[in-house]
Design brief:
Length: 144
């Protein structure tokens, strides 16, 4: 499924993906945690800057995690000279997110102009804490 930055087995390599983690994502504690031929995962470790006033990871941080991993997974399904621009993100919080959470993005529809990706966020016990659906527009990349 992934066509950009993949090895011979079609699995994206972390060296290709790490530059995509922007400064705000690194500050939030996001890191690349793995990939298969059909999914991509990022992890987030709870810290005081993302769980202020609560004992759980804030919902906005979970949204950022979901959108980041979904956008990366979507971009990996497009040709090298294209990019994915987010159009919508719907995130459902199912339970308190604490400790280390892993967001796994799976592209479910890759069209000529639109990509749809589902994201499942689970805690270290393997329980699902959030589910998201991301829709992105596929566009020709322009160099700035």
């Amino acid at each position: 499924m992934f066509i950009s930055g993949s090895n011979d087995q079609g699995i994206p390599h972390w060296r290709h993906l790490d530059p995509w983690l922007k400064e705000n994502c690194v500050a939030a504690g996001f890191s690349y945690s793995g990939a298969t031929t059909s999914s991509l995962s990022l992890q987030c470790v709870q810290n005081s800057s993302i769980s202020m006033f609560t004992d759980s990871i804030q919902g906005g941080v979970l949204c950022l995690l979901c959108e980041t991993v979904a956008n990366m997974a979507g971009a990996l399904c497009t040709p090298e000279d294209h990019t994915v621009v987010g159009q919508s993100l719907n995130c459902n919080y199912l339970k308190k997110a604490q400790g280390v959470v892993t967001a796994t993005a799976t592209p479910v529809n890759i069209g000529k102009k639109v990509v749809v990706v589902t994201v499942s966020v689970s805690d270290s016990a393997g329980e699902t804490v959030a589910l998201a659906t991301f829709t992105g527009s596929i566009r020709r990349a322009t160099l700035v």
